Amino acid sequence: MFRTLKYDLNCPLHFDSIEHARQWTGQFLHTYAHQHRHSGLNWHTPASIYHRTAHHIQHQRQQHLDQYYAAHPKRFRKPPQAPRLPEATGINTKPPHLSQTG
User: Fold this and answer.
1) SS percent in the chain: helix, strand, coil, step 5
2) Radius of gyration of the chain from Cα atoms?
């Protein structure tokens, strides 16, 4: 995440104070989680995956594709499909049960 922050084109070369750094970083992380669509999440935001609203967004995308296909069927070999919802990954799954000794 540090590299993502560091190489963002809007990242200041230096911060005036710790509060300035906290404020900029907080805004960046909010935008990154709620507005930036990630290719690894099939163009969903991390927030839509976390809050489980991605299925609703995918349904809307599929409806749009269905309407477009109905209006222009000759542009496609087969009906287009919205990207599937991402599968659970190690970061999203519960860790295996560990014993008291580790």
Assistant:
1) 50, 0, 50
2) 20
Interval 15-72: pLDDT, tens: 999 999 999 999 999 999 999 998 888 899 999 988 999 999 999 999 999 999 999 9
In 3D space, the residue among 46, 37, 42, 87 whose CA is nearest the CA of residue 62 turns out to be 42
Triad 44, 46, 47: Cα angle to 5°: 100
Amino acid at site 24: W
Q: Model-level pTM?
A: 0.64
Q: Are 4 and 38 in contact (CB under 8 A)?
A: no
Domain ranges within the chain, ordered by starting residue = 31-82
Please answer whether residues 5 and 36 qualify as being in contact, where contact means their C-beta atoms are separated by less than 8 angstroms. no
